[in-house]
Design a protein that fits this description.
Elements lengths: L1 H21 L3 H21 L24 H4 L5 H23 L3 H22 L7 H35 L2
Helix pairs in contact: 1-2, 2-4, 4-5, 4-6, 5-6
């Protein structure tokens, strides 16, 4: 019943976020909307269904986090390399957008990416009894967020010109 979660995300976007972001100008509106869409996709791939799973949260055993860093890779389990690469790729946009939205340094981006990743990893086994959390996912997500921030830093002069142009002209 993922459709329920998607409808809730759409309602939140239109009732809460849309008006607030539109007041900040078109470029800020687009950046924040893209970040919202990105986070919605991350939620789709990592946590959904959420709302319809709530009644069953306490009906299964909570799996503790795997604390063996890169354990699946070193033990040759499953598709560890694919999972590592996907976790890095998944959070590159997060780091990029966090740089634009917060205008803070890379340490803040690393902290935000870490918190974002920890939240996902701790909630996954709570919502879905078959899902597990892994320290490797947190580390690879932070690496991805850092790479995203580096991309932001490289393109920051262009991004700042676009934002300044938007603020001056306020289309």
């Amino acid at each position: 019943m993922i459709i329920v979660d998607i409808l809730v995300l759409i309602i939140i976007y239109f009732l809460v976020s849309l008006r607030k972001w539109m007041k900040r100008g078109p470029v800020n509106y687009i950046i924040n909307t893209l970040m919202y869409i990105y986070i919605s996709f991350v939620l789709y791939f990592t946590l959904m269904p959420i709302i319809t799973s709530i009644p069953d949260i306490f009906n299964h055993t909570y799996q503790m986090m795997n604390m063996e860093l890169f354990g699946d890779y070193f033990n040759g389990k499953g598709d560890a390399v694919r999972q590592i690469v996907l976790n890095v790729i998944m959070t590159i946009p997060f780091g990029f957008f966090m740089g634009i939205i917060t205008k803070k340094n890379i340490l803040w981006c690393i902290l935000y990416t870490f918190i974002f990743s920890v939240c996902i990893e701790l909630i996954q086994p709570l919502i879905h009894g078959t899902r597990t959390s892994d320290i490797t996912d947190i580390v690879t997500n932070v690496i991805g967020g850092t790479i995203g921030y580096i991309f932001y830093f490289i393109f920051r002069p262009i991004i700042n010109k676009i934002i300044i142009f938007d603020e001056r002209n306020n289309f």
